[in-house]
Amino acid sequence: MLQGATLAQAGIDAVAIKPAEVDVERAADLDVDALAVDYEGREHLPSPETLADLAAETDVRVTTPVRADGFDPLGEDDLTRALPRAVRRVLVAGHSAYLTDAERARAVAPRLRKAAARSRDPWVGTEGIERIALAVGGTQFELLGPGTDRRVRALRNAGYEGEIAVYAPTVLTDEEDCVLDALGAYAARRGPVASALPDGAPTDATADGRAREVLSQAVRDYGLVGDVDGVTDRVADLRDAGADLIVGYPARGLDPFL
User: Fold this and answer.
1) Closest CA to 171 of 161, 180, 159
2) 10 Å Cβ neighbour count for 199?
3) Under a CB-based contact definition with an 8 Å cutoff, are residues 88 and 120 in contact?
4) 176-188 and 209-222 helices cross at what angle (nearest 10)?
5) What is the CA radius of gyration of the chain?
6) What is the torsion angle, in degrees rounded to the nearest 10, for the CA atoms of residue 185, residue 186, residue 191 and residue 194?
7) DSSP alpha helices (H): ranges in the chain?
8) DSSP code string of 88-118
């Protein structure tokens, strides 16, 4: 188990926390500069009091899907108004798994623009809405994937001078079974990976043959995987491409990071 200053050693600036999986209060002990609390549905959103307590210890952001009731700047926005002043936002269109049919049908662009205008120093999630996110401005919040280095470098070469953050599921071990158990299913949901996998193949450590070969590459395309030195080198590559901030999601929970 890797502990202590491991995250800082690996060059990770912030950690993304999923409140349905972990107690967010424990994240205050992580050796990083900031925390990003992911949105997994209204029922899992930490209370304003919990967020305020956490923000008293470290910089905190909350992912807020602009199409979701409660965070809709053109409709119901009670959850936005309840956020503590010290908590800043990650503005996203919203994953369909956490949205109702009515919410999914809402236009993203006008809501994202309005939310950004009302936010202090927002991060703007680019997944599926890259051009809209770039037009809105703010820190561009990318998901790590096979083309991330190329896209970030292209932005810099085109003259983009704003901040770029990269979100990456992180597994600080080179034990292949642990890596596949933690990230196999995540990687398998990506379109190119799903197309390459044999039908019905397992996506965890039980995968073998062609499935294991595909997954072993995919978890490294879509995540930060390996020992500290290996992850440090991958983070350095992202920074060389032009990324400013690396946001790691602890795919095996908080314990390996504390």
Assistant:
1) 180
2) 5
3) yes
4) 80
5) 18
6) -10
7) 6-9, 48-55, 78-82, 101-104, 109-118, 130-136, 148-157, 176-188, 191-196, 209-222, 228-241
8) EEEEE---GGGS-HHHHTS-SHHHHHHHHHH
Residue type present at position 72: D
**Tokens linked to 32:** 């990083």
Domain 6-171+228-257 CATH superfamily: Aldolase class I (3.20.20.70)
Backbone angles phi, psi at 17, to 5 degrees: -115, 130
Q: Could you tell me how many residues make up the chain? A: 258
Amino acid occupying residue 238: L
From the list 38, 37, 101, 108, the residue with the least C-alpha distance to 67 is 108
Half-sphere exposure of 66 (CA within 13 A, CB side): 27
Q: Give the Cα separation of 89 and 116 in Å (integer).
A: 9
Looking at residue 3, what is its pLDDT?
Answer: 44
Please write the tens of the pLDDT for every residue from 36-50: 999 999 999 999 999
The residue with tokens 């309005």 is: 114
Per-domain residue ranges for the chain? 6-171+228-257, 175-225
d(CA 47, CA 174): 36
Q: What are the tokens at 43? A: 């029922």
Helix axis angle, 148-157 relative to 228-241, nearest 10°? 30
3-class DSSP state for residue 166? strand
User: Residue 91 has which token pair?
Assistant: 């503005």
Range of lowest pLDDT (31-35, 91-95, 143-147): 31-35
Both structure tokens of 142: 């990318």
This prediction's pTM? 0.93
Arithmetic mean of pLDDT over the chain: 94
